Structures are given as structure tokens and as C-alpha cells.
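In this section we walk through a basic example: taking a raw amino acid sequence and producing a predicted 3D structure, encoded as C-alpha cells. The instruction is simple. Fold the sequence below.
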Amino acid sequence: MKITALTLAAVLALTTVHPGALAQSAAAAPSQNAAGVWDLRPLYADEQAWDAERKAILAELPRLQALQGTLGSSAAGLRAALDQISALRKRLARLSVYASLQADENTQITAKQAANQLADAAMNQFGEATSFVNAEVAALGREKVEAFLAQEPGLAKHRYALMTMLRLAEHTLSTREEALLAGAAEPLQQPQAIYNLLANADLPWPKIRIRGKEVVLDQEQYVKHRSDADPAVRLQVFKAFWPVFKAYERSLGAIYAANLRGTVFQARARKYASSVAMAQGGDNIPTAVYRTLVQEANAGLPTLHRYLALRSRMLGLKTAGYQDVYVPLAKPSRQYTVAEAEALTLEALKPLGSDYTGKLAAAFKGSWMHSVAQRGKRSGAYMNGAAYDVHPYLLMSFNQDYNSVSTLAHEWGHAMHTVYTNAAQPFETADYATFLAEIPSTANELLLADYMVANSKNRSEKIFALSQELENTRTTFFRQAMFAEFELAAHEAVEKGEAITGEQLSKIYLDLLKRYHGDAQGVMKIDPLYGVEWAYIPHFYRDFYVYQYATCISAAAFFAEGIAQGDTALRERFFGLLKAGGSDEPYKLAAAAGVDLATPEPYRALIRRMNKTMDRLEALIAER
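The resulting C-alpha cell sequence is shown next.
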């Protein structure tokens, strides 16, 4: 997952990372980050330096507010104002990265959570100070803005943002109303902040014994043990873990309902037809993309059911339950260290060329990643590349299994996307949209899967590699499409004025779990307890984010297959996409690279690939 540090009412784009001087050698040197923690000193020397910069930024805000009413004075005046806003935004993004990384490293340290809140408050104050920009640019009109662009070459880096503001003029309010909405940003962010603290730091995790060893079943340990080879252990883990969320279903439901209502409020205030229209409107993504994805995922459910039935046969299960969905279909031949995962990733990504693997090998040597598992650490994995003048930072908990290797390849795909983008784009156009973000990261996963299949030493290893590819498609395409349906249903319920409770959310989610996993067809039995799984998914607090995993794996499969086959022209288009950053509408950039995600074909191609992979796996199983 890619995280950016700042979202503003103004459309002026945030960005990611400055690549620095990276070596070109592709040698698989081991990581120098042996401790598995990142080094935040390139951001700020210490917390005192961070706080001094925070205060300095706040002191600059009145100068930005003083720009109100000046944007239309002249082309040079517009450039100077936008440059000034952009420069402070860049500093603010770096400030936010430092605070959020420290907060996520250990969510139980109150002082670091407080500092992150101060960073959020600074971002919101910046949003208030610059809230006039959209309305003022919209008032200038296209003709005058185009004239300014022609007169002042220095405005070129702001062209896309200016054109986007003009396009969104119908959803832009008066200057006073924009200021009011900007001021509301902080309270509207509170549901996510409350959820993060409750889910990561305060829920009372149970203790269970697994093979005689006591385990505190927090989120990281749940992920580790849910794939246990023993069906009894898997069931024990699920029956101990999910009642914790069920016990807090009412509170978690109230928190998420507050988030939903905040989103619907903003959509209506900006005169969008729906929440999903607002979510896609900023990047001008056709609504057909979302609808087509859901349509094709449902059309492809027989393929998912085929895979789930194959899993049950391979695992020897008469009746599979949801607790069996994560167990590997074959025993991995080994465990991995971080250094071994990095070396394997470099080998797998050789089809991308020596420039890519050289930059990646050099980046591995830095302390960019926090990979050690520890209590209180934020769950999941992400890359935060918003500190443009430093480098990306990555968070994951490396558990020594193949899934950790795949996650590492995925997150470093984000990091390298950031590196290439920032080498080619100025700060103003370096922030690539989420709609594109998961393409290179997921392509890395697919190239790794293909490498594992091709380099398997025996039948058992090949079965494991093929099964991992199938599992990746299940979780990245079908699971995320299911999430997308849930989000859409939850938002639409609020838009219709329906009451939203934790119990109702669990019912919506349970119905989807059953449909996607073939409960009615006898493919997999879904215990009603697991309907509360929606409360475990932090991505839902980033409205309409998750569907892009599913669209991106479809695009990534297209690129990975062609690049692996040596299609150099396709590889050049792929790197063109990486280097384009946020210089144009993301749907257009993807289409120009060869993938139209508003049409059924990319999704159908991915499902065909999944069926072919199952054909190969079934043929291997049939061998004696």
C-alpha cells in the first residue's frame, strides 16, 4: 500500500520522494539494515528539530492567507503564489512523514500519537490557509488561466493542478464555504484516528496456547498463526481472535458510521451525486471502472469457487470453513531472512532491467524499512514516499514466510515507483494517484510468483509456487472487489438515510462473505461470527481506496506477462507510466500505456490467467 501524507481541499498535488544518488550495480548485496528498523534522521535530527520546523511552518501560514485575492493579478503573480504554497506544502509533507512513522512504530506511546495529531493539525491549518485557491482559480476561468500559462513558463509545473481546479469548478464552493470545509477536516478525521488507537493499541487481545507455548493473539500473531497447518489450531485462532472484534461491534460500528457520515456530508456539500463519485472525481476516473470491476468480479465467482474447492481437495477437508482460507496448499521448503528476501526479489525482477535492479539493490542498503515485528506496531504494510527531498519509508512485519517475501517485493515496488517518478517530475507533479500506485507494486508480486514457479527445484516447490500465485489473485482481486462492494453498500445506506450500526455492517459483510466464498453452493461454510471482519480492515477509513488493488492487479498482470516475455516496447511504456507521476489524469496514463480499466477485458484476462494456473496445478497434482 502507498501512503501519502497530505490530502487537501485544494487540488495542488502532493508528491513522494527524491531518489538521491543511487548506485547502478545490480549485485544482490545484503541489507545494511540488520536491526530491521528505519533511520528517521534524514528527515530530522531529533524530535526537537521536528517541533521547531512545525512551529516555523505554522508561522508561515499567515503569509499564505495574505495571498488571497492576488491570484488573478498577473501570470507572474499566480506563479509566485503557487510556488510559495507548494514550497510550504513540501515542508509540511516531510513534517507529517516523520510524525506518522514514529506514531506507527509503536501506537502505545502516547507522546508520539500526540505529535502525530499536531502534524495533522498543521496540515489542516494549511488547508484552511489555502482554501481560497480552488475558488479563486475557478473564478479566473479557463481562458484567463490558459493565457497566464502561455505568458509564464514557470507555471508549467502547475498546469495539471490548474486544469484540474477548472474541471472541478462545479464542485468548488465560495471562498468562505471552502474555508469552513477546510476547518472541518480535523474533526472529520477523528473516526480514523480513534479506530487506529482502538484496533492497534487498546483492544484486549486474548492469550492462547499453541503447542504448549502461550501466545498473545494480537493482530500480528493472528496473521502469523491463521495459516497454521493444523486445522484445530486454525479454528482455535479464529474462535479466539474474532470474538474480540465482535465484543466491540457496537463501538466499532459507531466509529465507522461516523466516518461514513462525514464522507457523505462532504460529497453533498460539494454537490456530488454520491460518495463514490466524489472519490473518483478528483482524478476524473470514469465511474464505469468501479462498476465494471464489481460486475466482472461477480461474473468470475465460478473461478474463485473452483479455486476454493481445489484448496479443500488439496488440504483433505471434507467441509472447509473460513478459518481454512489462509493455510498454504503446499509446505514451503524454507523460511527467509530479510536479506534473502531482498536477494530473491532482485533475481525475480531482472526482466525490469539493470537500471531498476541497480537502484533497488542500492536502496536495500539504506535504512528505509521497519520490518521487525513488535507489540503496538501498526498492522499491515505500506510505503510512505511523501518526503520528496529524502527517500521513501516502508513499514511491514517480516515473519520469515513466503508471504513476507511477496509483501517486501510489493512495498519496494511502491518505493521504486516513487524513486522513478521523482527523478522525472518536479514536486508539483510527482504524486502519482492511488489508481496507478498498485500497478508496479503488484507487478513485482507477479514477477516474483513467475520466478518462483520457473525456478522450482522439484514438483513440491512448483506446487507451492503455483498455489501462492493463485492465493495472490484471490486476495488482491476477489477479496478487494468484495471489499469494494461492502464500501459501496455501506456508503449507499447512509446516502439513503438508513441507520448504520455495527450489527447491520456485519450483516452486509456476512452476506458478501457467503456469496464470494460459495456458502450456498457448499464450497465453504461461513460462520456468522466472521461477519465482523469488516471491523478489522483499516483501509475502509480511506474511502474507496481498496477497489484499486483489484483494478491494479489486472493492469499489473498485463505488464508483468509481457515484460517477462521480453517485450521491450511494453517495458518502456511501463517505465513511462512510472515516470509520469501525477502529470496527467491516471486513467488516461494507464490507457496510454495500454490498459483500459473501464472495459471488462483486463479483468477477464486476469481470471483467464487464474484458470490457466489452476490447470497447471491440477496437472501437477495428478502426476504420480
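Looking at the output, two observations stand out. The first strand starts at residue 2 and ends at 3. Confidence is low (pLDDT under 50) at residues 5-33. In the next section we compare this with other chains.
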